[in-house]
Amino acid sequence: MTSNGAALGVLGGGQLGRMFVHAAQRLGHSTVVLDPDPASPAGAAADRHLCAAYDDAAALDALAAACSAITTEFENVPAAVLERLARDRRVAPGAAALRICQHRAREKACFDAAGIRCAPHALIESEADLGRIEPSIFPALLKTASLGYDGKGQAGVASAGDLAAAWAALGRGPCVLEKRLDLRREFSVIVARADDGAWVNLPVQQNLHRDGILAVTQVPAIDIPADVAQQAISAAAALAAELKYVGVLCVEFFLLADGSLVANEMAPRPHNSGHYSIDACDVSQFELQVRTLAGLPLTSPRQHSPAVMLNLLGDLWFVAGDAGPVTPPWPKILALPGAHLHLYGKAEPRRGRKMGHLTLTAATAEAARATALQAARLLGLPAF
Ligand code: ADP
Ligand code: MG
After folding, report:
1. Which of 152, 159, 185, 377 has its Cα between 20 and 30 A from that of 56?
2. Angle, in degrees to the nearest 10, between helices 15-26 and 285-294
3. How far apart are CA 346 and CA 27, in angstroms?
4. Helical pair 104-113 and 226-242, crossing angle rounded to 10 deg
């Protein structure tokens, strides 16, 4: 029994689960993580780690027996698993919302239903579909309909003649072909929505990707016009309402070169671009996740410090070349004012693997950016 009597469960044991566990524990909840990896970052932090597959019936029964409410940090948990848990436990977000976020075509249909503009696109499920594509969609990007992340499961398609080869390279499964848009900036909006429809949002986050992976998040989003930011917040709230969503939802947006707004994709969970909120806001995205799951009140998060977040990928351990991994110079990083270092406890650094993040807070956006550029230099990361 915890101080407030409720154990919270999470499906998935990655860094998002770990930061959820930290937030839940701070509010007096005990936590249970289900993840098949014995060395999972969230499993190591939780009160209890059920080390089993996501569809292991005995483990799901144990999770339901131990917890009053269950969430997910990993959108590819089979929706049927959530449905099973929801038979006798509170589960948020629900299986229906997860099912939509697991498939890019369903996601885009949901954007349409909520009246939110997204990139011109077509669903490709068969050889025959390849011949029915509007030529105006090229140049385009082909994305697997499910299981893509960090730019994986994507291929550029310059013209109609390249489509068949790209589809073959991605395994001939269901894919979405999307017009390649002329992006000025990328940004994201995180909303949290409660059972009664009340919702709050974090400030708009300006994101820079490198090789399809988030590299830098800056908040305030200095290059996003206020009216566009407001439009995006309204769109994210409309989507959450359309989905009857309970929990934390992140929507990624593009600001196009012509100044217009397009929704890219959504994530039914806290998002990498919201990690700064731990150190820069009075309520973090993970606390919002705990509050929505446990049925606690939502208050509007206030950002108390401008912030820049740098993602720390495994590549940083190999900047010296192909020799063995070398730990980055953390003491030099921690000597910077307003440096908040988060390492996820992953034993093995690998290129492209998210090992941690670094948030720099300061009294002004300019100062946060200046310190972040200093940190980037120390780590061998490009300027931004
Ligand atoms: P993931 O699930 O890997 O995050 P995204 O659909 O968000 O997949 O694509 C990753 C990145 O690729 C985006 O952040 C953006 O930089 C770029 N991208 C995706 N779709 C488009 C598009 N239609 N036009 C231009 N760039 C795009
Ligand atoms: Mg994305």
Report:
1. 152
2. 70
3. 25
4. 110
DSSP label at residue 114 = T
Decide if 33 contacts 63 (C-beta within 8 A): no
Nearest CA to ligand 1 atom 15: 212
Query: Which is the closest atom of ligand 1 to the Cα of 150?
Result: 3
Number of other residues whose CB lies within 10 A of the CB of residue 378: 15
Q: How many CB atoms lie within 10 A of CB 270?
A: 30
Evaluate: CB of 150 within 6 angstroms of ligand 1.
Answer: yes
Atom 21 of ligand 1, residue of closest alpha carbon:
180
Per-residue pLDDT tens over the stretch 332-368: 999 999 999 999 999 999 999 999 999 999 999 999 9
- Selection from 209, 215, 178, 189 nearest residue 315 by Cα: 215
What pLDDT band is residue 4 in, cutting at 50, 70 and 90?
low
Residue-wise pLDDT tens digits, 186-216: 999 999 999 999 999 999 999 999 999 999 9
- What CA–CA distance (Å, rounded) separates 330 from 54? 35
- pTM across the whole model: 0.96
CA 265 to centroid of ligand 2, rounded, Å: 6
